[in-house]
Amino acid sequence: MIQAKQLTIALLGAGSMGSAVGHRLTQGGARVLTTLEGRSAASALRAREAGMEDASLESLAACDFILSIVPPAVAIETAARLVPVLEHANSKPVYVDCNAINPATVEQIARTLEPTGAPFVDGAIIGMPSAPKFYMSGAHAARTQALADYGLVVRMLDGPVGAASALKMSYAGITKGLTALGSAMSLAAIRNGAGDALLDELAESQPALAAWLAGNVPRMPPKAYRWVAEMEEIAQFIGDELAEHRIYEGAAGLYARLAHDKDATDTLERFFSERKN
Amino acid sequence: MIQAKQLTIALLGAGSMGSAVGHRLTQGGARVLTTLEGRSAASALRAREAGMEDASLESLAACDFILSIVPPAVAIETAARLVPVLEHANSKPVYVDCNAINPATVEQIARTLEPTGAPFVDGAIIGMPSAPKFYMSGAHAARTQALADYGLVVRMLDGPVGAASALKMSYAGITKGLTALGSAMSLAAIRNGAGDALLDELAESQPALAAWLAGNVPRMPPKAYRWVAEMEEIAQFIGDELAEHRIYEGAAGLYARLAHDKDATDTLERFFSERKN
């Protein structure tokens, strides 16, 4: 028997972040539903291990909350798929888009969902799957405070839909952007016979950056493929009219190559790991 | 009377770095010549205050060393101007190109000077005018060790012409690149109502980066105009065939705007300085 007050949460997406959040919520006492239709065997396994239950779209629409935690490229279609069932639902769940997408895309999703009557919240996840923090913005953000009782770290931003996503974009633009700079410049220095000199000079005059790069660049390769779309979102976040959007087009191009260039990522991992000793 | 063994050094360029190096060398006991023909009144004043003497091109060619410390865009023409007088000189000075230019440009300068017989050294300056370090590479690099006796910090790189410049490019690509990321993302976060949240989150989860940005972004505005050409050199250092060269085209575009957009740089300075207190 499910207790009367138990929160039920629909979690769209069972990637590494989605399943980690699902596990945290089930451990916290929530019932977590998802739809595994069309998902990979790995996703299905991760979802089950996280204690998430496979459910119909109608069941998802009957939850208290819907959390969308999917790759940036499918955030819009994920919301659109829910529109028909949400329109026919009697009670409306709070839809929280937690994806790494730019504010304009978030507003597009909010508009897509508007006819359904489901309250929309702009969410952003900062941190690793092991310790995610949720930032929330928009008129209905306060309603997500309930998730804190089920194990999530939830912080309210005093801003409209778009503010949480802007925080995510700008934070990732600095951290994943610096990982791109460190990777691009290390590879270029190595190609030109200046790799060791670069690390020595950074260690001497920029010890904080040297330590940061040694800690972060080697962890990037398995995530590079996911960061391509995120860098493209950040380029759009800046906007075509400002020249610096090209910084993130360049970073997207770098990560697109590194996702497939094992020689380059092996070189980077060796380069930074040798120097830690 | 000039002592027999006093080193005479031709210093091309009397910008903030060039004049600081000139001052260091004259304080160290060297005689430092430059040519003020066609230079601004500010450069002429800086040169004189640094103890540098105005001299003809022929006198420069008779020095022990020629140090080129000029804006990246004029490094080639600065060398080319010296070619006729160097060709006719009996003894050949060591020509050290110390500019923030990419290895291919350095090689072009080396080829330009080759017919003169003057030994060529690839130099790179890392650090502020108050504490510059000189890295030297190429077959004749060891000859620049003499400059250490006159107050310069000189370090040899075990590499050909191009290695010192590659170090400079990759080091500046990380440090001035991160300044670009921090500027672009702070301005975008502020535009989207997430500026304070960004600084709070960085302070909490990326304290090293938060401190670095607070220390470096506010010092960037007066240098932005000079960094445009340097970012373009770094883009060429990467090469057109690699997508990440666009990172630095974007950074060049950002600095080109910030060099003239006082509203934006005032915003950045206020943004970071408010948070230091």
Automatic annotation (TrEMBL), chains A, B:
GO MF: NADP binding
Coiled-coil intervals, chain numbering: none
Residue ranges occupied by any Phosphogluconate dehydrogenase NAD-binding putative C-terminal domain in the UniProt entry: 191-257
Domain 6-phosphogluconate dehydrogenase NADP-binding: 8-127
Domain of life: Bacteria
Name the UniProt record assigns to this protein: 6-phosphogluconatedehydrogenase protein
Organism the protein comes from: Caballeronia insecticola
Taxonomy of the source species: Bacteria, Pseudomonadati, Pseudomonadota, Betaproteobacteria, Burkholderiales
